[in-house]
Amino acid sequence: MALNIEDIRTQFPILHQNVHGKPLVYLDNAATSQKPIQVIDALTAYYSGYNSNVHRGVHHLAEKATTAFEESREAVRCFLNAATLEEVIITKGTTEGINLVANSYGRKFIKAGDEIIISTLEHHSNIVPWQMLCEETGAILRIIPINDSGELLLDEYEKMLNERTKLVSVVYVSNALGTINPVKEMVKMAHHVGALVMLDGAQAISHLNLDMQDLDCDFFVFSAHKVYGPTGIGILYGKKVILEKMPPYLGGGEMIKEVTFAKTTYNDLPYKFEAGTPNIGDMVALKYAINFVENIGKENIAKHEHELLTYATEQMQEIPNVKIIGTAKEKIGVISFVAEGIHHFDLGMMLDANGVAVRTGNHCTMPLMSRLGLNGTARASFAAYNTKHEIDVFTRELAKAVRIMS
């Protein structure tokens, strides 16, 4: 089914503005996606109509807020095909979800000499927590290498796996290169040696169909703002049998059943990992972001974004001195690029002057950039509301910028 892009675009108020006197072309979706009006309205409705704390009151506003909050949890459960609501833990985002597992599961079950495997493609949020855990416990961090196209070397990964491997934590889709990793196969390989697997789904969440029963990963994390939802809210999925063995990450209200000065009894899942007043308004609004995606259909979004990726790639290959970084066979709609002799910041500023928003820098993947021999790239990334006309504008202005600065 072909998407009605103009109808989709009418749902995003922010897209209809000029930047530096030019119509906005927003191609920074891997950093954060824009929000449809139904998400914005849901936030307004919560704060103006039934703002109240959840789970702790019997009055009307508290009950209404709690119902909306838990309806969003159920929407997430369905979106991921998690087995139970207890497996859906609310966090601030992908980073907090990874840190929760590193601090809770890691501190209890990872010992000196154990091995944790990550990959060269990882975002800093899936590197630093494991480095910190290894420094604390004496565990060893091992890195899956990549080829020059930005694809993981699965034969090298297979060689790394052994009886000392306790956890594999890898990105499903690279935020810097768009590479889609063969995570289902990687999960099976890790499970074969008894290791658990966490998947960083920050980039996968808005582009790929996700089924936790099919993937069989042990943990999965994502941020709402990557999937047309609000900032400051995210989800950790974990298999119930594993979450039940893990100690709480934070202490305080909500994560307890009973507190005395002698002893505290912890709450059941999922509340054991949700200390304090949660980000209620943004969690309520997440359901509407999920509804937006489901109403369009992920298959339709993926098809449209792949068409944009192909179209943009073909046009960029015609621009002299521009090189695309990351040419994996399986990619989402992300194109990292450099221009010979031109700093990526300068490219970004020239594009911005003409209304085109792209990301520049190392994309929180400094080890990956080092592997590629770069200090950073410019990056264009696509969403359901982007058009071929916008790509025409982007590539025209990119060609002009390269011509001026070369």
Task: Describe the SSE topology.
Blueprint: H1 5-10, E1 18-19, E2 22-23, E3 25-26, H2 37-49, H3 60-80, E4 88-91, H4 94-109, E5 115-119, H5 128-137, E6 140-144, H6 154-160, E7 165-171, H7 183-192, E8 196-200, H8 212-215, E9 219-223, E10 234-238, H9 240-243, E11 256-259, E12 264-266, H10 280-296, H11 298-316, E13 322-325, E14 334-339, H12 344-352, E15 356-357, E16 359-361, H13 366-372, E17 377-381, H14 388-405
Parallel strand pairs: 3-15, 5-6, 5-7, 7-8, 8-9
Antiparallel strand pairs: 1-2, 4-10, 9-10, 11-12, 13-14, 14-17, 16-17
Helix pairs in contact: 2-10, 3-10, 4-5, 11-14
Question: Which band does the percent of strand residues land in?
Answer: 15-25%
Q: How does the major sheet shape up?
A: 7 strands, mixed
Write down the CATH class of the largest domain: Alpha Beta
> Can you give the mean pLDDT?
96
Radius of gyration: 22 Å
Named CATH topology of the largest domain: Aspartate Aminotransferase, domain 2
- Coarse structural class: alpha/beta
**Based on CA inertia axes, which overall geometry fits?**
globular
CATH superfamily of the largest domain: Type I PLP-dependent aspartate aminotransferase-like (Major domain)
Q: What gap, in angstroms, lies between the N and C termini?
A: 42 Å
Q: What is the number of helical segments per DSSP (H or I, 4+ residues)?
A: 14
CATH level-two architecture of the largest domain: 3-Layer(aba) Sandwich
Commentary on this structure:
By secondary structure, this protein is an alpha/beta fold. The relative contact order is 0.16. The longest helix has 21 residues, at 60-80. The strands form five sheets. Strands 4-10-9-8-7-5-6 form a seven-stranded mixed beta sheet, sandwiched between helices. A four-stranded antiparallel beta sheet has the order 13-14-17-16, with helices on one face. It has helices spanning 5-10, 37-49, 60-80, 94-109, 128-137, 154-160, 183-192, 212-215, 240-243, 280-296, 298-316, 344-352, 366-372, 388-405; strands at residues 18-19, 22-23, 25-26, 88-91, 115-119, 140-144, 165-171, 196-200, 219-223, 234-238, 256-259, 264-266, 322-325, 334-339, 356-357, 359-361, 377-381. The chain has two domains: 5-30 and 297-405, Aspartate Aminotransferase, domain 1; 41-294, Type I PLP-dependent aspartate aminotransferase-like (Major domain) (Aspartate Aminotransferase, domain 2, 3-Layer(aba) Sandwich), CATH 3.40.640. It is built from 14 helices and 17 strands.
